[in-house]
Amino acid sequence: MTTNPSRQEPLRREPLRPVPLSPRSTAALALVTATGFAAFTWPFLAPPGSQVAAHSQDAPWLFAGLLVLLVAVAAAAISESGLGPKAVAMLGVLAATGAALRPIGAGTAGIEPMFFLMVLSGRVLGPGFGFVLGNVTMFASALLTGGVGPWLPFQMLAMGWFTMGAGLLPGRERLRGRGEVLALAGYGFLAAFGYGTAMNLAGWPFMGALASSVAFDPQAAVPANLARFVAYCLATSLGWDLGRAIVTVVLTLTLGPALLKALRRATRRAAFETPVTFDGPPG
């Protein structure tokens, strides 16, 4: 008995969902996040006079090597569990676009337009996709600009967190329109300072005795080193962080609505976030 196509129910699509995270990829993200937190904050975790503090010039190099491995493991786990061929293709397009945007300002006065693209992409495609996108984009931009060095693993992880955070914001299904754009702009403003602070933590122990009043002192107590770090941030990066935050907010408010629609449309057409189903069996 043949089925009459005219009696077939219309297609129904599920609400747009992010690229899923399996338990394995979630565990990998938790591991790299915990290790990364230690890699960034170890100057405040190691007791004065400890062996770790005594090797303050070596520790960043050791953590950099470890982060390379852990970021690769986390990205591989996410890719295996949630990134199909179409998602990988979109990842490549967005990473290439972000890498091309970074040299526009070359970091001058914090003019870094790639950050707003990371915020919007993480929002639409979810925290797992956002983490991998942040890693790949930063790696590609470093190759493009010649910015490869011991700081690169820290940049990759910090950008992965930055993009992943946008995917973790609440209201994915309900919040739309101007309210969503304002929320993303607010997140981008705060996260831009968070990224700058994290990268300051990564480079601060390298200073040694070059600037004794703001450098990390392995023999000093945590409050003293915290005061030195705050002074270091105010003296070296506040202007850049503020510029990055303002550029991210302005671009999110002006280009965000159109880009969010384009990303969601492209994601639905790629159809990698959810299968197409029928309302009911054909009669």
Give a quick precis of the structure.
It is built from nine helices and two strands, in the order E-H-H-H-H-H-H-H-H-H-E. By secondary structure, the protein is mainly alpha-helical.
Descriptive terms for the model:
9 helices; 283 residues; mainly alpha
Strand count, sense and barrel status of the largest sheet are: 2 strands, antiparallel
Distance between the termini: 11 Å
User: How are helices and strands ordered from N to C?
Assistant: EHHHHHHHHHE
Radius of gyration: 22 Å
The level of helicity is 55-70%
Poorly predicted regions are: 5-15, 273-279
Query: Which oligomeric state applies?
Result: single chain
Number of helices: 9
Describe this structure in words.
With 283 residues, the protein is mainly α. It is 69% helix and 1% strand. It contains nine helices and two strands; from the N terminus they run E-H-H-H-H-H-H-H-H-H-E. The chain has helices spanning 23-45, 51-54, 59-82, 85-105, 114-145, 152-167, 178-203, 222-236, 238-270; strands spanning 11-12, 277-278. Strands 1-2 form a two-stranded antiparallel sheet. Helix 3 (59-82) crosses helix 5, helix 5 runs antiparallel to helix 6 and helix 5 (114-145) runs parallel beside helix 7. The radius of gyration is 22 Å and the shape is globular.
